[in-house]
Amino acid sequence: MGSNPTARAKLKKVANFKEYIAETVNEMVHKVTWPTWKELQSSTILVVVASVLFALAIALMDYVFGAHDVADPNTFWKGLLGSFYNMFK
C-alpha cells in the first residue's frame, strides 16, 4: 500500500473528509451565534403574520381579478372587473 498512489489518494480523501467534519463541528459549536428562545419565537411570529398577510393579499387579488376555472370559460364568477366589463358589452 505504501507505493500504491490510488490507495494513498483514497486515504488522503478520507483524512480530508474527517478534517472537514471536525472543522464543521468546531465552527457550529464555538463560532456560530444561535438565537435565544425568545428571539426565535418573535421571528417565527413575524414570519407567520407576514405569510398570512401575503396570502390575504393574493386572495383579494383573486377575488378582484376573477378566480375562475380556466378549463370552463363560461363560469359565473369572472371577478369584479369581469362583471364591470360585462355591463358595458
Describe this structure in a few short sentences.
The protein has 89 residues and is mostly helical. The chain is built from 3 helices and no strands.
Which SSEs are present, and which pair or pack?
Blueprint: H1 5-31, H2 37-65, H3 79-87
**Which regions contain 5 or more consecutive residues with pLDDT less than 50?**
none
Supply the helix-strand structural class: mainly alpha
Q: Report the average pLDDT across residues.
A: 81
What is the rounded Rg? 30 Å
How far from one another are the termini?
Answer: 87 Å
Q: Say how many strands there are.
A: 0
Main beta sheet strand tally, sense and closure = none
Note the total helix count.
3
How would you sum up the global shape? elongated
Helix content: over 70%
| Run of helices and strands | HHH
**Beta-strand residue percentage:** under 5%
Q: How many domains make up the 3D coordinates?
A: 2
Keywords: Cell membrane, Membrane, Protein transport, Translocation, Transmembrane, Transmembrane helix, Transport
Protein name: Protein translocase subunit SecE
Function: Essential subunit of the Sec protein translocation channel SecYEG. Clamps together the 2 halves of SecY. May contact the channel plug during translocation.
Transmembrane segments: 45-65
Descriptive report:
Helix 2 packs parallel to helix 3 (79-87). The protein folds into two domains: 1-32; 34-89. The protein has three helices and no strands. The longest helix has 29 residues, at 37-65. It is mostly helical and 89 residues long. It has helices at residues 5-31, 37-65, 79-87. Its main location: membrane.
